[in-house]
Amino acid sequence: MKAAMDLIYLVSCAVNEEKPDAEKCAATAILPVNATESYIRGDANGDGHVTIMDATVIQRRLVELEHLNSDRIKAADVTGEGLDISDATAIQMYLAEYENTFKIGETVIYDEYELPFIPVK
Q: What are the structural domains, with CATH classification, of the chain?
């Protein structure tokens, strides 16, 4: 789930004597403190649970029978190496109660974002 948010921009400039140097100005987008994103690792279909359907959704995505948006792909990529068959296998192993080395089923929360440096001209 994503929180609705407004970006706040911080503009800074290097000052050369009395006027700013436009070549050295930059805008940085800052997210409000309460802006967070979370998902359940392995929940490829977004229903809030990790089930065999999530492994099936990944398999269907890999053979191009199903579309996943970027949020669902992030949740489905449990190995962190890009979405591939090893993610579906890891979910199947989690469901069969093998060792959970990828922390499948845990909620992942991001409260810090890395944003690009945007020069202002």
A: 8-35+112-119 (no CATH), 42-105 (1.10.1330)
